[in-house]
Write a structure and sequence with these properties.
heterodimer, A: ABC transporter involved in vitamin B12 uptake, BtuC, 76% helix, B: alpha/beta, six-stranded mixed sheet, 9 helices
């Protein structure tokens, strides 16, 4: 119990990394704005881990929440006000209602059936955005012409966007840590471990699953909204299944169920895609694929598990 | 006073009648065993009692509340816990976490959106969970992952897990299945110890030593029907039981 009550350390480490990132990231070859993009994907991956890592439910439909939220934010900025607050509030309301309904329909099933159902819903939204709603979404071209987002007179550009995203990321990381150490978090882990027993322990498993799904979708919603604030454009690919696929790869690379892991996975993948891909040329995807396979085969717990194993080895060496 | 009332329960699987007009009552504070040869319908009956299977006909009520229309978690919240044939625990979680789950469920009900509660707020729950582990003799392994326990210890953990929700009625599906002799004896001892606290128990069991060592009342099922009911002494000499169940064993011996 003493171990679980110590949640200030991870928050402190995360805050220090995030707040100092703009100063050290350029030395690693990161271009301006990539750090913001990494943080946004880290938020997305963090929420995804609350579902996959804690309940064991693998959603292939999170692209829907990310994309819908981005479109709602973009449309609000375009047609209502360039202030990001009403845009973010509207995107949260709309997306969470959709997530709640999808959760009710899909969480009756588990395993591959749940994954396929979520994928089907996301593809439905993707297809609708490209056809019946293309007057609103811009179809294949995406939603363009969005004015520079503002926060009560402050232009959301460069470092302002970064620190806005950073504050939200820290707050959401704090929330994730609190969830993971709470009775609610214990119930989510119990779902992954043995939901049949949990049901026979007097717990309404379905309700816990629906709320875990909605909380996870909330992170995706914030990430989608921030993506438009970072870059005032909504690409139709946001709704594509490959967005969900990216999320799964990031989680597996970093370490499912560790909270930190999927965020590290997100950082690694974006860094790889945007920086390391330059010397590797067109073969970068092939190299990434090989790394992914090696991790799955030799380090199924991802980077975080690798770091833990290394630490254990070093401690054992020191002791001997 | 009857705590559990099973009235004319029938259950069919396709053309096979697994339960036919089963009627019996369990008195509060007693240990009531359900015995019968393989395929008699014992596990089906237990699954109907816990809401895992819906009865085709008849009713089951607990203290007057019908159980046939409600889900397993609602049945548990009424005060009924179940020990499964294969120990059902949370393998990847520590022993303490295993037992704190039912304590939290008893405190918070079937659902509570308490994701901001700190471990400090759960201190009382953890201390009660430790007490329960102490009760079954697993306190030294409290931080161990449950999957590393022996089968006998997993059964003890499951018992602690069930006791932690403070049930009024405990259903046990072959609690000594697959256990070595000494583990069976330990389990009988443990069940006796728990019984001294006045909890009602319904035990489905194959091992006659366990049944006669623990039961105050026995119902015998054969081909989906109750063929006899009475005290252990009455059942031992019952001709129908000898014919349907004990007779087979005596012949084998």
């Amino acid at each position: 119990m003493s171990k679980s009550s110590n949640y200030l350390m991870p928050i402190f480490i995360f805050t220090a990394i995030v707040l100092t990132m703009p100063f050290w990231f350029p030395f690693l070859g990161g271009y301006e704005g990539l750090d913001t993009k990494i943080l946004i994907w880290a938020i997305f991956a963090l929420g995804f881990d609350l579902l996959l890592g804690y309940t064991g439910y693998l959603s292939f439909g999170h692209a829907a929440f990310f994309g819908i939220s981005a479109y709602v934010t973009g449309l609000m900025l375009l047609h209502f006000s360039s202030n990001i607050i009403p845009a973010m509030i509207a995107s949260v309301i709309v997306t969470l209602i959709i997530a709640f309904l999808i959760g009710l329909l899909t969480l009756k099933r588990s395993g591959i059936y749940f994954s396929i159902l979520t994928l089907a819903f996301a593809e439905m939204f993707h297809s609708a955005a490209l056809s019946m709603f293309q007057d609103w979404t811009g179809g294949d071209n995406g939603l363009t012409g969005i004015p520079t987002p503002m926060l009560f007179g402050l232009k959301m550009q460069e470092m302002t966007v970064y620190y806005f995203v950073a504050i939200i990321a820290i707050a959401l990381f704090y929330l994730a840590i609190r969830i993971s150490r709470s009775p609610f978090g214990i119930m989510l882990r119990a779902i992954k471990s043995n939901q049949h027993r949990l049901e026979f322990t007097g717990v309404n498993v379905f309700k816990y699953k629906v709320f875990a799904f909605v909380i996870s979708a909330f992170y995706a919603t914030i990430a989608g909204s921030l993506m438009v604030i970072y870059e005032p454009y909504v690409a139709s690919e946001f709704l594509d299944w490959s967005t969900s696929g990216h999320l799964v790869i990031m989680s597996v690379l970093g370490g499912v169920g560790t909270l930190f892991g999927p965020m590290i996975g997100a950082a690694f993948m974006l860094y790889f895609e945007n920086v390391l891909s330059v010397p590797l040329g067109e073969q970068w995807l092939l190299v990434l694929g090989i790394i992914f396979m090696l991790i799955v085969i030799f380090l199924p717990g991802g980077f975080v598990d690798g770091a833990r194993k290394l630490k254990r080895k070093l401690t054992a060496k020191e002791n001997s | 006073m009857a705590i559990l009332d099973v009235h004319n329960v029938s259950k069919n699987f396709g053309g096979l009648a697994a339960l036919k007009d089963v009627t019996f009552q369990v008195e509060e504070g007693t240990i009531h065993s359900l015995i019968g040869p393989n395929g008699a319908g014992k596990s089906t009956l237990l699954n109907v009692l816990t809401g895992l299977l819906a009865a085709d006909e008849g009713r089951v009520s607990y203290k007057g509340t019908p159980l046939t229309e409600i889900s397993p978690h609602e049945i548990n919240q009424l005060g009924i816990a179940k020990v499964f044939q294969t120990p059902a625990i949370f393998p990847e979680m520590s022993l303490l976490e295993n037992v704190v789950i039912p304590v939290l469920a008893a405190r918070d009900g079937d659902f509570k959106l308490n994701f901001m509660e700190t471990p400090k707020g759960m201190a009382e729950c953890y201390s009660y969970a430790e007490e329960m582990l102490n009760e079954v003799g697993l306190q030294d392994d409290r931080n161990k992952e449950a999957r590393f326990l022996s089968r006998g210890d997993k059964r003890r953990l499951e018992l602690a897990l069930c006791l932690a929700s403070k049930p009024k009625l405990l259903l046990l599906d072959e609690p000594t299945a697959g256990m070595a002799r000494h583990e069976t004896e330990q389990t009988i001892e443990l069940l006796r110890k728990i019984h001294s606290k006045g909890m009602t128990k319904v035990i489905v069991e194959h091992d006659m030593n366990v049944v006669f060592a623990l039961s105050e009342r026995i119902s015998v099922l054969a081909q989906g029907q109750i063929i006899a009911e009475g005290s252990p002494d009455e059942i031992k000499g019952h001709p129908k039981v000898i014919e349907a169940y004990l007779g087979e064993e005596q012949e084998e011996a």
